[in-house]
Amino acid sequence: QVQLVESGGGVVQPGGSLRLSCAASGFTFSSYGMHWVRQAPGKGLEWVAFIRYDGSNKYYADSVKGRFTISRDNSKNTLYLQMNSLRAEDTAVYYCAKEIHGGNPDDWGQGTLVTVSS
Amino acid sequence: QTVVTQEPSFSVSPGGTVTLTCGLSSGSVSTSYYPSWYQQTPGQAPRTLIYSTNTRSSGVPDRFSGSILGNKAALTITGAQADDESDYYCVLYMGSGIRVFGGGTKLTVL
Question: Is the confidence at residue B1, as pLDDT, over 90?
Fold first, then answer.
């Protein structure tokens, strides 16, 4: 079965950087696009970024464009999110998710918490 | 900036039927937006219910169905049960690789 395990969350100061990882198993990782979605405490879901199966195209929400970079290593079955210039409003649980037909998120990881605070 | 709209809250009686909607602040939702629906309980990751408008995800009971109703995507729960009490989110594909989630609907079963 599909398994997605996020890691790399933690506490970081405003202006700092963090890299999240998502280890994938149970499916052919190199055949599927992948998403990052976040959820601030007590708030709704916010789509963050998407990368095509081969890494050829990457897409970002306006709120993170220019600060976050999505990438993948298909040889390691791992998805990444490099987060720079972090702000308090980036505090959230970050989920990785595999795409399904139509491209939207389908299978989800359990999430990793990122807290931006001084 | 287009906003995806959902009812903030809804209530249904056990055994009853409820339809949650997913619209746009400007324009109509069609199948070209590939609407998906998710269920989330506190502290848990979202669970996919419906994708591509009306296809149930694996293991989702047929009490859950998706459709386009008028100018919105819709999620209908038939025969509501106590454990359907959750937050429900829709997401739309806006083109150019961009997705936008609705603000979510808090469903109460009482």
Answer: no
Chosen for mutation from B36, B50, B99 (greatest number of chain A CBs closer than 10 Å) is B99
Q: Are B49 and B37 in contact (CB under 8 A)?
A: yes
Q: What is the mean pLDDT of chain B?
A: 96
pLDDT recorded at residue B6? 98
DSSP element (H, E) containing B56: strand B55-56
Rounded to whole angstroms, how far apart are CA atoms B62 and B73? 17
Q: Percent of chain B, pLDDT > 70? A: 100
Q: How far is A113 from chain B (nearest CA, A)?
A: 12
Do A45 and A39 contact (CB within 8 A), yes or no? yes
The values of phi and psi at residue A50, to 5°, are: -140, 140
Average pLDDT value for residue range B53-78: 97
* pLDDT less than 70: residues of chain A: none
Sheet with B64-69, strands from edge to edge, namely B4-5, B18-24, B72-77, B64-69
At residue A101, the pLDDT reads 78
CB of A33 less than 8 A from some CB of B = no
Chain position carrying tokens 């109460």: B108
One-letter identity of residue A43 = K
For residue B39, the SS3 value is strand
